[in-house]
Design brief:
single chain; alpha/beta; Rossmann fold; Arc Repressor Mutant, subunit A; 2 domains; about 40% helix
């Protein structure tokens, strides 16, 4: 009996592709391994016609596959690209040239496979009609133009990515990493996703609804960082941690610490702590058999009722439903 084919991720490199985003899927999905060390995904990169592709940089790339593999994808990822004759990137909506056959293939594929756009590749999905009536995101700098071009799409420019089930959209650059890790977690749970994130030296989880941090100033290098204090807090999530205690650990006044923390992280210390506690509780639900009340204590959320309330607000499900869902995927 032939072995079952593993999940196939196809990356469609269009002319003018941005090299970094193009390589995210192979780095994330290609690194994922099961308990026996076997790969969990097969990643193929293709162009429409199998020919070398011009990139946005000063080099081209040669791919091993043509557009025929698009129809075989379980997950299709389209990275962003500079498009249109003589385009300089100022108008990513110039996708009138999108081949009709590719648009038809995307439409058929969306009925059985996942289709993912990164950054301004959302224009391709919208042109093919896959985002009609859907909530979607794109790079914040193009969101207004995108909405004018495709008024039938519900554009949300304030998030890192949107998981619409079969059709998913990510904002710019690093949000593509976040979305791939989100899919990995959706498929195989947080233990596998966290392991891949550690190997790739990237944050294991940034919630899709997190802001894109538009025009956020970067703290001066000479300023003291709150990173060490955040690491310290993560090792103590099971106990109460007051703002004054965090500031004392960082060697700052409460006011200075709060301001610097928000500059670096984009939220208040209290909001960040709550998010980390919820994330820790989710991991414990996925990989342990601890009762809900014990998990709430371990995560610093107090009681089972408090955990249920926080989880319902964060992801809209009860702890046991969440656990059963991820156990089913792991099995």
């Amino acid at each position: 009996m032939p072995p079952e084919r593993i999940h196939r991720v196809v990356v469609l490199a269009l002319d003018g592709v941005y090299p970094f985003e193009m390589t995210i899927p192979v780095r994330i999905f290609g690194t994922a391994r099961g308990p026996d060390g076997a790969p969990l995904y097969e990643v193929l990169t293709c162009s429409i016609d199998g020919r070398p592709v011009r990139t946005s940089a000063d080099f081209g790339i040669t791919v091993e596959h043509g557009g025929e593999v698009v129809a075989t994808a379980d997950t299709l990822v389209i990275p962003p690209f500079i498009c249109g004759p003589g385009a300089d990137g100022a108008d990513p909506g110039a996708v009138d040239w999108l081949p009709a056959e590719l648009a038809r293939t995307l439409s058929r594929l969306s009925a059985r496979a996942r289709i993912v756009s990164m950054c301004t590749a959302s224009y391709v999905l919208a042109t093919a009609g896959l985002l009609d009536g859907r909530r979607a995101t794109t790079h914040w700098n193009e969101a207004e133009h995108f909405q004018r071009t495709f008024p039938q799409v519900r554009v949300d420019a304030d998030v890192l990515f949107v998981d619409g089930g079969q059709v998913l959209t990510a904002a710019g650059v690093a949000a593509g990493v976040d979305l791939c890790l989100h899919l990995l977690r959706r498929d195989h749970g947080s233990a596998v996703a966290n392991r891949v994130a550690r190997l790739c030296v990237v944050p294991p989880w940034r919630e899709g609804g997190q802001a894109q941090f538009i025009e956020r100033p970067v703290p001066e290098v000479s300023q003291a960082s709150t990173a060490a204090t955040r690491e310290w807090a993560l090792s103590r999530l099971g106990r109460p941690i007051a703002l004054a205690e965090l500031a004392r650990h960082a060697g700052m006044s409460v006011r200075t610490f709060s301001r610097r923390f928000r500059d670096e992280v984009g939220m208040t210390p209290g909001q960040w702590l709550t998010r980390q506690r919820i994330e820790h509780a989710r991991r414990l639900l996925e990989v342990t058999d601890l009762p809900v009340d014990r998990i709430a204590q371990e995560a610093g959320l107090g009681t089972g009722a408090s955990l249920r309330r926080h989880l319902a607000h964060a992801i809209g499900v009860a702890p046991m439903v969440y656990r059963q869902t991820f156990r089913a995927r792991a099995d």
